[in-house]
């Protein structure tokens, strides 16, 4: 079964002007009507680091989760953030960004890779205690711009360490949009065969014209979990090309349906969510 993860948090977090809490909640409530498997709705991180997400707890209070079709995921960057997120029974998943690149790990979470792995282990224990699941995003999973070591074998080493911690979901992340279709297929194929107990997701960034081929490449490698953001909003500021952003969900859907997948989405609600993006992101 294909799982679609809609990521308004990733789309919103880089916007300089603060999006009103009520507007965030109204947008996410609309997304909850569409039928996505999961909505990555917010993060419990330092408000100095990501000021746009400082109201995540307040947004959560405004969400209409009665008969919601989607699960909720929140990003955390340390144990304190995880503890904050675990206060809310409505949250199903905690997402943690672990990087293959030492430079990016330091920039993103102000910690070393070794420290980050220890944090993953602590969060995993907390999640098990609270009945939650942790999703680890393997950032710079297809290469990095810093000259740090990278190879598919290095990715496999990270996955093995996460498997030892009993992580069940790993999202391979093309943080700066450098992955070729060939590498995407190779990574998903090799990792899913080596670690069948792990669900591997695709959090890819791309220029608009490259989305479909990257989605199909991941599918070919066995990927059944895809992250996207309507209209392709958001992305990594480290990407050298300003056109590189999140996979546009509407293009992702078109590519998957073109391969014959029935995604069980409410298309009328999806159209309403598409209309709202202009108001939310370009007021």
From TrEMBL:
Protein family (similarity comment): Belongs to the HMG-CoA lyase family.
PANTHER family: HYDROXYMETHYLGLUTARYL-COA LYASE
Protein's organism: Algoriphagus aestuariicola
InterPro entries, per the entry: Aldolase_TIM (IPR013785), HMGL (IPR043594), PYR_CT (IPR000891)
Listed GO MF terms: lyase activity
Pfam families in the cross-refs: HMGL-like (PF00682)
Organism taxonomic ancestry: Bacteria, Pseudomonadati, Bacteroidota, Cytophagia, Cytophagales
Domain of life: Bacteria
Ranges for domain Pyruvate carboxyltransferase: 1-271
Keywords of this entry: Lyase, Metal-binding
Protein name as annotated: Hydroxymethylglutaryl-CoA lyase
UniProt feature coiled coil, ranges: none
